[in-house]
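Lab meeting, item 3. Inverse folding demo.
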């Protein structure tokens, strides 16, 4: 039985999902458990949730007998492992804090669903969200090449060679340390947000056809950058992203609701 693999796949999912299930009623509690581990029953609710998490939303009834048997053994293994962890007091300290955060996150998710359930965004709200997102987009895209090396002195030497007329593309093929070397350092089109800040800042300061006079340092190494061309950003049409706007509107609605709750709550900030 692949207990370790099963735990890795399902434990986080179960913890996140557990707060989203309904509370157990007396009728639920009276139902026969699927197993009893050291006197602790495993309820059918927990069983069904485990199966759905482990098998991409399937109910236990949709599994083959072999899959059901394997899933049950995995769940029993989880309970046995959890009992041993409790016995050894492994949940103290940071692990206990992790469990607390997961539980609070799951409860907050339940509130999110209740607040936003049945409240589909209007066309006006979707359009407003689209306009706000488009306004945040960079207005210009850049097409650039670069040569990446791990030494500042080498980068300066490359710039000196380019100053004397050496081919940027040829030097990139011979010296660059990343995958763009085969294409002469060509990075294609990108917007500034796709690059680390020192790189994007340097690109935006260049004139078309020019290269950086000094090497640019990033976490990846030292760059020599050449700006090939620029063009205005073309935002995606409203209809192409409309389906993605709904969740964003709901998130904003929930954040507003949460901010209101925080305003009413008795909060003592100790930091």
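The presenter then showed the designed sequence:
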């Amino acid at each position: 039985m692949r207990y370790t693999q099963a735990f890795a796949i399902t434990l986080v999912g179960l913890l996140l999902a557990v707060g989203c299930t309904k509370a157990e009623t007396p009728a639920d509690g009276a139902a026969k458990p699927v197993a009893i581990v050291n006197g602790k029953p495993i309820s059918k609710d927990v069983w069904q949730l485990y199966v759905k998490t482990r098998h991409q939303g399937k109910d236990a009834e949709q599994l083959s007998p072999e899959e059901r048997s394997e899933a049950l053994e995995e769940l029993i293994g989880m309970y046995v492992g959890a009992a041993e962890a409790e016995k050894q007091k492994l949940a103290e300290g940071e692990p206990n804090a992790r469990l607390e955060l997961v539980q609070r996150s799951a409860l907050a998710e339940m509130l999110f669903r209740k607040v936003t359930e049945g409240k589909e965004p209007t066309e006006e709200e979707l359009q407003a969200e689209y306009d706000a997102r488009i306004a945040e987009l960079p207005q210009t895209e850049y097409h650039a090449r670069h040569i990446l090396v791990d030494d500042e002195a080498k980068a300066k030497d490359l710039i000196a060679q380019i100053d004397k007329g050496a081919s940027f593309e040829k030097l990139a093929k011979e010296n660059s340390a990343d995958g763009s070397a085969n294409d002469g350092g060509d990075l294609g089109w990108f917007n500034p947000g796709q690059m680390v800040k020192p790189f994007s800042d340097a690109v935006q300061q260049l004139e078309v056809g020019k290269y950086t006079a000094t090497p640019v340092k990033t976490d990846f190494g030292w760059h020599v950058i050449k700006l090939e061309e620029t063009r205005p950003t073309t935002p995606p049409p409203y209809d192409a992203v409309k389906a993605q706007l709904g969740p964003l509107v709901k998130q904003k609605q929930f954040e507003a609701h949460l901010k209101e709750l925080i305003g009413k709550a008795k909060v003592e900030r100790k930091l």
